[in-house]
Amino acid sequence: MKNNRLIYLIKGELIRLHKYKVTTISIFIAIIWSVLLFFVEGDIFNSLLPVLILVDATTMSFMYIGSVMFFEKKESTMSSMLVTPSKDSELILAKILSNTIHNFLSTALIITVFVILKDVQISYLLIAIAVILVTLYHTSIGLLLSYYQKDFTTMLMSVMLISFALLIPTVLFMLNVLTGDIWEYILLINPIQSANIIITQSFKPITLDWKYYFSLGYLIISGLLIYRFLVLRNFKNYAVSISGV
Amino acid sequence: MANIFEVKDLKFKYKTNQENVLKGINFQIKEGEIFGFLGPSGAGKSTTQKIIIKILENYQGNIFYKGKDLKDYKQDFFEDIGVSFEMPIHFSKMTAMENIRFFQNLYKKKADVERLMKRVGLWEDKDKMVAEYSKGMKIRLNIVRALLNSPTMLFLDEPTNGLDPANAKILKDLIREFKVSGGTVFITSHIMADIDQLCDRVAFIVNGEINVVDTPRNLKIKYGERRIKIEYKENNKIVEKLFSMEDLGKNKEFLNTIKEKDIETIHSGETTLEDIFIKVTGVTLDEKQ
Ligand SMILES: Nc1ncnc2c1ncn2[C@@H]1O[C@H](COP(=O)(O)OP(=O)(O)O)[C@@H](O)[C@H]1O
Ligand SMILES: [Mg+2]
User: Fold this and answer.
1) Distance CA A174, CA A183 (A)
2) Chain B contact set for A79 (CB, 8 A)
3) What is the reported pLDDT for B150?
4) pLDDT single digits (tens) B208-250
5) Which of A23, A72, A83 best probes binding to B when mutated, by most B CB atoms within 10 angstroms?
6) pTM of the model
7) Are A19 and B85 inside 8 Å of each other by CB?
8) Nearest to A83, CA basis, from B185, B5, B3, B89
9) Mutate to test the pocket of ligand 1, among B14, B37, B38, B47 (most ligand atoms within 8 A of CB)
């Protein structure tokens, strides 16, 4: 019974992502990226594709869950959800998993385009693990962020700010602006850097180093802690506050 | 009859409030009755509903549902109840039926949706997007939503607000049918007629306090002025006379009047529940607080 309910909730979320045109937007964005990257050559392409996947799995995860919560608030539908037998954890997981599925598919679309067009060498298994884990993680953070935003505009602003703040050092490092071993250690506590590592190491040739395993473990453990102690614990208050009744 | 709900000394304030919004209210809801909360806007009706359906949690006082502390209930409590909020709430970009099916899948018990949709006259429009529905249709869909798990208890916050008389009648009939089939109803309203027509018992609530709880009939007997108004024709003019109902059979003037005069109309002086509300609480129902 319980598992069925979670599946129905996820199915409902996925249908609404479609009906509220979020999927249309994400396909549109994937096409734009694909067209842009198509005209980029050689080395630049090779360093841009991982950045693109990284941005898609992090910043876009924030955006999608943020907009979903915004629709939910606008229509006061959370109130109806709160008076069903669904548990808080089921409501949250439905949101997080549906958005992860959706964003995973849109990232997969971009990767597929390049595998076909540009003969990208990539481990499908590792990139799938990386994209799913990173998307799950950042969707949860995005949900947590929306707990503290009054409206969609402030949500957008803080998402931009936070992801820029976190992305900038990582991108600088990737583009070899920041150099030196010390940065490798400092940057690892930044989840976007961990995300970066497990994404870039999914490209061939595969040589997984300690940073890969550290990043993987770091994302899984800190993700579970964030879910349990921040996302789940503060959900009910937030849900009531956007219930609009 | 057993009490399905027992509320003792309930106090509540929202985070932003200075004072308590509910100031220690007491009431019981009996199994199988329609229990009404009548009071002006801002009295605390919706707040009370949100507390007894477990949406708002940080209250003081005690609430028992079927003899067990409401706080000890988990999510299975919601298998048992149906709720409609002050505003009709649906996913606007889904059809009525998609909305209903989505919510129904979350429950173990399932009502016959086709029958309900036909009953409220929405079956023909079941595949329309809710965004295309009129306000009246949304409110009717809302009641279907509240009933789709065959609840044993219904909570309705201002259910007829914004409905035209024809739709309001459909809704009131549904509420009565629900009661006849064994259900219990908690209903809030600032509209006197709704409460008067539907409720077995009513609580008057003003400014977070309950002034009185009784049946509408008892309230009328207690506070109403029991008078008879007679109009008769005399010298081509209509004459109006008022008689107290006390010892009416021994009232010579009354008896002579009906014996001798050419009577046009006889009315018992009905004091409305609204008159009584004003008398008991000192405020009118459309007063903002
Ligand atoms: N979310 C809220 N935050 C702060 N105050 C509220 C909130 N909701 C209602 N109130 C206040 O609580 C009081 C009771 O409101 P409510 O229960 O909605 O009354 P009613 O349903 O009888 O109109 C009012 O003074 C109202 O302003
Ligand atoms: Mg209200």
Assistant:
1) 11
2) 55, 85, 89
3) 97
4) 999 999 999 999 888 877 788 899 998 889 999 888 888 888 9
5) A83
6) 0.89
7) no
8) B89
9) B47
